[in-house]
Amino acid sequence: MSRQKQPGFSPARLLETLPPLHQATRLWVAYSGGCDSLVLLHALASLRPQLALELRAVHVDHGLHPQSAQWADHCRAVCNSLDLPCVSLNVDAAPQAGESPEAAARRARYAALEALMAAGDVICTAHHQDDQAETLLLQLLRGAGPKGMAAMPAAAELGPAQLLRPLLSFGRDELRSYAMAQGLAWIEDPSNTDVGPGRNYLRHQVVPVLRQRWPAVNRVLCRSARHCGEAAELLDELAALDLAAAREPGVGGGVLAIARLLELSTARQKNLLRHWLHGLGFSLPSEAKLQHVLSDVLLAAPDAAPCVAWPGVAVRRFRGRLYAVREVAASAADACVPVELDPLAARSIQLPDGSRVEVGTGQGAMKLSLAKLRQVPLSIRFRQGGESIQPAGRSHHRSLKKLFQEADVPPWWRPRQPLLYAADELVAVVNLCISEGWAAEEGEPGVGVVWQP
Predict the structure, then answer these.
(1) What confidence tens digit (pLDDT) does each residue in 169-178 have?
(2) Pick from 59, 71, 62: which is nearest to 102 by CA?
(3) What are phi and psi of 239, to 5 degrees?
(4) Coil, strand or helix: which one is 43?
């Protein structure tokens, strides 16, 4: 007869939820000082012999409460009592325009934690079953799709480290019972009782009512989050297949073939576009913006130049291709401040619009003569109008306008295309051509200059 698993939280049950940590070198606990993170810290401290890992705590002080400095002192004292090192980080949690205080604190916290992490690190947070249920309800009320309603994954990446949430199968009451049984002392953040934020309102006003009618509501909601997570994985796998078929060969990842997109159903088009934009690091569009991409950009006339934009990104059409480009302020795009280059040292140079130029000996298909570049000051400038160049191997000068047209350079990229000058002579249109007389001969040391728009 098999032994029935005992209910409640314990270090032994926590150990069962942890994935193999064979590749890990350090295990961090994100320790706020509250009950949940204290339970996680205390239990992992008792498991040090089984884990055989260096265990550390990290406390993030958001500076949002007058007693936050005392809370940081409390966390260090608790860690000392457990013989654990504790790193305390101070962050600026001031919200940006349109950002809620909760979102600002979360953004600042995770940015600070990511900066602390190194390869081989694992960091555990104390999110539990009740947190997961609240997150699912919040996402549902925001109209999120499967990925949003998957809520918080049990494992994710945080920079070079692995992020784990090993308490997702335990409820708040189980953790509180363990803390009381162990005689632990924790901090009660008074902001947790404020029902103004959506999460707190759900926690104190909505979920208790649901639990009266459905006692297992949190466990059931967490099961739904897992189902949504599986559905989101399948959608990502389908989007990856569709993306591979829709990419334009020989161009950057931010370009898709519109004809191939139009072969897909509307649902698959939306799924692919979200996956594509997320992979490029762009914020995702609202449902209305995404619909405008489908109707106003994909279905536009071949000679039209439609654009759908939202903060930080624009989706454009040009000659049968769909482009996702980072939008920059006009002042940044128009800035033509020379950037000094050292042809002898490989380096990455950030331009005013946020793009980068990589410079190094032997880099890129186009190589300029190192001997000639050493003789003159170099700078990167931008198009002002009227420029021309004689590409290596051609007998006549070509205006940049004609050159861009021949190379199918989209109109919105042309003012941002870096131009390499030696003194006041245009010697290269980066990524497109080198001026006659400036290209490295075969076997001659050369300098490659590559633009990453």
Answers:
(1) 999 999 999 9
(2) 62
(3) -65, -40
(4) helix
